[in-house]
TrEMBL record:
Class of this enzyme: hydrolase
Species this protein is from: Fischerella thermalis JSC-11
Organism domain of life: Bacteria
Protein name: Monosaccharide-transporting ATPase
SMART domains, alphabetized: AAA
Amino acid sequence: MVNNHSSSQVPLLAASGMSKSFGGIKAVDNAEIQVATGSITGLIGPNGAGKTTLFNLLSNFIRPDKGKVVFDGEPIHHLPSYQIAQQGLVRTFQVARALSKLSVLENMLLAAQKQTGENFWQLQFQPHVVAKEEKQLEQQALAILESVGLAHKADDYAGGLSGGQRKLLEMGRALMTNPKLILLDEPAAGVNPRLIDEICDRIVQWNRKGMTFLIIEHNMDVIMSLCDRVWVLAEGRNLADGVPEEIQRNPKVLEAYLGK
Ligand SMILES: Nc1ncnc2c1ncn2[C@@H]1O[C@H](COP(=O)(O)OP(=O)(O)OP(=O)(O)O)[C@@H](O)[C@H]1O
Ligand SMILES: [Mg+2]
């Protein structure tokens, strides 16, 4: 999970010159961002600043007008998003996308990559291999559910989860792909305060195990307590980046939030 780059050297993710317009609106305008290996990096900015769009560009859910994304030493901007996920860059959505008619465990299993069971020929000729792999995946899913505090919900419909539990399931689904970097879009939004603390704790625990995170969040307590470094976008452009204490005191950042 942890790769060889030390955090002071080559960043795990480096994007530059990212741009995307929708009609006349420059949603992301020549933006850059870097995420150090092993870090929890924050991405903040007022509503409509382009944060979610930047996530969509990094993961190629939306094709950038221009820009370069290097992940783990390789350019990835030309790859389709499923291949980017296979390389280890996964993202969650601002609105959680769990399938409500499936159980929590089934949602986890669906998120796993390279399920041999999906291969028709292997199923015909090597059913024992498929069965063994399914068992392993289920064990992995249960272990991850345990680590995000949802083990007791494994057999419940995902549709019955609270907002905060859905965010935890989103994180669990991302973890099922054995990623190197997880992009979390507003993990604390619409979540009750007690569960926000729990989500933060789970993020910290996974980070201590070596997982790198890039987090969009409006809750400043969450950003300031979790992040090693924070990037600020406003009107699609980079406004500032630095350690949380610097960002909190930066007059340009305060002005962007308070409005001119
Ligand atoms: N698919 C789209 N089509 C047209 N305009 C879009 C689209 N997606 C985003 N935009 C516009 O691009 C700008 C940036 O939106 P984006 O969702 O990236 O902001 P954000 O920083 O994530 O905001 P929030 O904090 O409210 O989630 C906004 O003006 C938005 O209306
Ligand atoms: Mg957004």
